[in-house]
Amino acid sequence: MSRSVPISFVIFPPQTDKGRENLKQTRQDLAALKPEYFSVTFGAGGSTRDRTLETIKEIQAEACVDAAPHLSCIGSTRENISSLLDQYQAAGVKRIVGLRGDLPEDLHEPGEFHYANELISYIRETTGDHFHIEVAAYPETHPEASSAQTDLENFKRKVESGANGAITQYFYNIDAYMNFVDNCNRTGIEIPIVPGIMPITNYQQLARFSAGCGAEIHRWLDRKLQDYGDDLESIKAYGIEFISQMCQHLLDQGVPGLHFYTLNRSEASVAICHQLSL
Length: 278
What we know:
By secondary structure, the protein is an alpha/beta fold. The protein has helices spanning about 15-30, 50-60, 80-90, 115-125, 150-160, 175-185, 205-215, 220-225, 230-250, 265-275; strands spanning about 5-10, 35-40, 65-70, 95-100, 130-135, 165-170, 195, 260. The protein is built from ten helices and eight strands. The longest helix has 21 residues, at about 230-250.
């Protein structure tokens, strides 16, 4: 039986002509699933600003799926944020993912904005309710947060600044997500919190990403993936089955949607959505 749960996909702006061609095919494959939107990442310190804008315009021109640019404030000024917002409005963009972003190694000062809530407030001040704004949430706590309570308070500030919804960092611990949502509800946070889903296709890559962002890989899952060694096809097959079951449990809990981190590849996300009849 098919489901009407909203799904969305995050992609990153390609650097080469070949990457652009590959991403175009990926978007076509994913668009067949009728997602709510594609979100497009914004490199640390705005390093992919122009390529993000180019990718957003391509998606908008295709007129089949909405585009949602990531907009990070670290290393940005009010002037260049305002310029980007003007360009996104002109391109017909209605949704933005507002983030603090990472501080590049060669940048010692964050710029005019220090935190995501300051960016959200500025977007609201300058564009009113034009944009639906998504923000980031961390069920397992942001790796830089001094405590889980501090992280929750930071998240609440983003919500109070005008966020409409949130997308979580990817996770494999459903209890962590459910506990986070419960804590938000007790704190009076009522916006939809959509779980971020990272398909498992490459153990080494996943371990590296997870170490950087603080996403826990269960010890038993880590050992299971290591047992496959370099057999990427077996890792992918197991990953599709595991993530499909995880997503099914989340859907059974009534989550407001699923947001897939695609790494600009469609196969695993498409297979998972088909398993779930999405």
